[in-house]
Amino acid sequence: MRSRLIVSVLVALGVIAVALSVWSVTTAGQIARPERTADGHPNLSGIWQVTSTANWDLLAHGMRPMVGQPGVYADVQVLAAPVVALGEAGIVPPGPGVVEGNAIPYKPDAAAKKKENAEHWLDRDPELRCYKPGIPRAMYMPQPFQITHGTDKIQMLFQYAQASRTIHMDQVNPPPADTWMGHSVGHWEGDTLVVNSDNFNDRTWLSRAGDFHSDAMKLVERFTPITADALRYEVTVEDANVFTRPWTMKMVLYRLLEDNAQLMDFKCVELVEETFLGHLRKNQLVKRWDGDTMTVDITRKIPPVDKLYER
């Protein structure tokens, strides 16, 4: 009886050992990459993506229509005409927010502008026209981006609109004019990559909620490994033209671990030309949509060109 017990225990331990061996192989396969570069710094190379709702709204928020109007009950918003055909897809998902203190310190006139932007989101958000997203927004759009280490550069390539940025790990002259993606210079503080960025234009937003900045914006970003497959991303925003003080948002970037993880084509310009240029056609391509349950007539109200970039 005793020998049988010993054999059973050994068999059980063998099963556990095999299970642990399989688990370790699987885990090792997922992180089978150099953890550090040749110069000893964390290897951030890979394809990353956030899971937050920051692109919709940086602050804590409940679900709401992308474009809403009062429903049967005055305190309950329903989908308004521009998005009613989208159904559930026209709803902003809820999120806990990414801003420290859950408040963005707008100056009074800038706060009014932000509110107006939110109310006219469909007419004004540069994302809807497939413009370059700018930094920091590119970091938390719901599409992946790739980091590649070089000798004295770190390159980031974004799936959205095929945008890109170069983080210079050496000192280089800034661009001759302000740019959509800014000018970025990085250095290491221990295992944290610290990036200082400036030379932005004022044509990008920070979120679909109407958050904006001026061409005086400066950023300090921090990328800190949590595990081999997760990065803590912190960015401090400073813009004396818009905000009363610097403010910070934090989120986590996750490495895509699928075997076929890759950036794919998202050349959205040709698909959205009708959105902001269709009214110029002699014969508009998009004027009416007949669905199974509703008919939607498209009427474009295009602001003057000088209003498109008004901040």
Q: Can you characterise this structure?
A:
There is one protein chain. With 311 residues, the chain is of the alpha+beta class. It has three domains: 194 residues, Calycin beta-barrel core domain (Lipocalin, Beta Barrel), CATH 2.40.128; 34 residues, no CATH class; 32 residues, no CATH class. It is 19% helix and 25% strand. It is built from five helices and 15 strands. The strands form four sheets. It has a nine-stranded mixed β-barrel. Strands 2-5 form a two-stranded antiparallel sheet. Strands 3-4 form a two-stranded antiparallel ribbon. Strand 11 and strand 12 form a beta hairpin. The longest helix has 29 residues. The chain is globular, with a radius of gyration of 24 Å. 23% of the residues are buried. The N terminus is likely disordered.
In terms of topology, how is this protein built?
Elements: H1 2-30, E1 46-50, E2 64-65, E3 68-70, E4 77-79, E5 91-92, H2 108-119, H3 121-124, E6 145-149, E7 153-158, E8 164-168, E9 183-189, E10 192-198, E11 218-227, E12 230-238, E13 247-255, H4 269-277, E14 288-290, E15 295-297, H5 305-308
Parallel strand pairs: 8-9
Antiparallel strand pairs: 1-6, 1-13, 2-5, 3-4, 6-7, 7-8, 9-10, 10-11, 11-12, 12-13, 14-15
